[in-house]
């Protein structure tokens, strides 16, 4: 099945006049009263919403297919919020950056070839579900979990579950492989002390 799709550009047209089609199947409409040319691209855009952490950082959208699709003005992607900026376009990949968020979760929308892609900053995601728990031959405990690929997580430990989290010991940070899978390996233990672990997002 062809994954590519056409996008509706009829909204907002004012006295359209001429129509042209290029070799890639893209349709162009002369929107005369708006002094603009609108494109109806024959391309695939992944509209999956993105979740980002609170810190200032940068990220990129999945590539537009075909990667040779024209993403230059007047077909360049746009952001509807000043805290999120488009920083580059290379081989169909749209890069963007965002400032630090010190308030509640916020959402900006990137418009790319007629598709709206929400970028939400400040949502870590659902609570992590631990998987693959095992004790290594060294005596270290190892486990994994999935969550927001842009998140970061600290692992805490304690011998007393009645203590508040503020009194737990920081055991380390979970390693992020970049695709939303995190893994943590504890220091090897030299005794039979019972330890409890918790995962916390900063």
In words, what does this structure look like?
By secondary structure, this protein is an all-beta fold. It is 0% helix and 42% strand. The protein contains no helices and 17 strands. The strands form five sheets. Strands 4-10-9-6 form a four-stranded mixed sheet, with no helix packed on it. Strands 11-12-16-15 form a four-stranded antiparallel sheet, with no helix packed on it. Strand 7 and strand 8 form a beta hairpin. It is elongated. Mean pLDDT is 80; it is low at 1-8.
Would you summarize the structure shown here?
The protein has 202 residues and is mainly β. The chain has strands at residues 16-21, 27-31, 36-40, 50-52, 57-60, 78-79, 84-90, 93-98, 106-112, 115-121, 131-135, 141-146, 154-158, 169-173, 175-176, 181-185, 196-200.
Please write out the topology:
Layout: E1 16-21, E2 27-31, E3 36-40, E4 50-52, E5 57-60, E6 78-79, E7 84-90, E8 93-98, E9 106-112, E10 115-121, E11 131-135, E12 141-146, E13 154-158, E14 169-173, E15 175-176, E16 181-185, E17 196-200
Parallel strand pairs: 4-10
Antiparallel strand pairs: 1-2, 2-3, 5-8, 6-9, 7-8, 9-10, 11-12, 12-16, 13-14, 13-17, 15-16
Number of strands: 17
**Which band does the percent of strand residues land in?**
35-45%
Number of helices: 0
Structural class designation: mainly beta
Oligomer: single chain
Bulk shape: elongated
Q: What share of the residues lie within helices?
A: under 10%
Mean pLDDT figure:
80
């Amino acid at each position: 099945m062809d994954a590519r799709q056409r996008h509706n550009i009829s909204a907002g047209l004012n006295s359209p006049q001429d129509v042209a089609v290029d070799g890639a199947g893209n349709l162009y409409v002369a929107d005369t009263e708006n002094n603009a040319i609108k494109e109806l691209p024959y391309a695939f855009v992944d509209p999956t919403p993105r979740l980002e952490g609170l810190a200032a950082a940068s990220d990129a959208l999945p590539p537009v297919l075909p990667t040779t699709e024209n993403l230059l003005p007047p077909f360049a992607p746009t952001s509807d919020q000043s805290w999120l900026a488009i920083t580059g376009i290379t081989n169909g990949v749209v890069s963007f950056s965002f400032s630090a968020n010190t308030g509640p979760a916020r959402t900006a929308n990137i418009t790319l070839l007629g598709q709206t892609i929400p970028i939400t900053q400040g949502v870590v995601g659902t609570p992590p579900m631990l998987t693959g728990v095992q004790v290594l031959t060294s005596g270290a405990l190892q486990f994994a979990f999935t969550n927001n690929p842009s998140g970061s997580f600290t692992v805490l430990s304690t011998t007393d579950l009645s203590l508040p989290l503020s009194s737990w010991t920081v055991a380390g940070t979970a390693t992020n492989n970049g695709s939303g899978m995190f893994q943590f390996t504890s220091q090897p233990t030299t005794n039979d002390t019972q330890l409890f672990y918790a995962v916390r997002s900063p």
